[in-house]
Amino acid sequence: MEFAVVCTATLVVAALTLFSGFGLGTVLMPAFALFFPVPVAVGATAVVHLANNLFKAVLVGRNADRHIVLRFALPAGLAAVAGGLLLELMSGAAPLTRYALGDRVHEITPVKLVIAVLIVGFALLELAPRFDRLSFSPKYIPLGGVLSGFFGGLSGHQGALRTAFLIRSGLGKEAFIGTTVVSAVVVDIMRLAVYGTTFLGGSPHSIFGTGQSAWPLVAAGTAAAFLGSFIGTRLVRKVTMRTIRVLVGIMLLLLGIALGAGLI
Length: 264
Hints:
Layout: H1 2-20, H2 24-33, H3 38-60, H4 66-91, E1 97-101, E2 104-108, H5 110-127, H6 141-155, H7 159-166, H8 173-197, H9 199-202, H10 215-235, H11 241-260
Antiparallel strand pairs: 1-2
């Protein structure tokens, strides 16, 4: 069941993100969270996200604008460290409350609640028609890097903000795609470094440790992401992105509510 959910979500969304610049982490993290603790889900998502972005960097990274990458990706990388450390701090906090539903006990923890709010927030952005036109002045590119990197480190939700801040940076289509991919690689490397040396390195339920290992699912998700990205380079222009984003937004909204309620 978990392989079908993660691989299907990854394959479809990876095929659509090459040109949109966001979506894979937004969908994949909740999919992993259905089967693993939230911190592990964020870490597992980061592994797949980095591997897929490295693959895309081979395809389109040569088109990146180096000046924009320096202004955006460097602040984003540093902010990703702060977001990752905040996630580590929250992951050890005691549950806010517990309640029974049938024969199961559900917990609402600080990290679940924060991630749920972020998921719902980004879901609402996906559903809002005005978000299609959301963009910022090029002078705010470093600020966009900080915000995108911080939320990338905290929950994996970095792409939507990255796209909004870079869409009016004066880049052509090829340069825009290459710049977003290279910037995503920088953030992924920085946040994985934090995850690997903090909560995932010592957690009995981590993707690196014992217990229910996420590595088989990570490997399957990575393979699905590669295939999706490869397909996306050929088919994405034929897909109506608005319809896909509405469906993704609805699913994220439901998952965010379930996560915030402690159901998953």
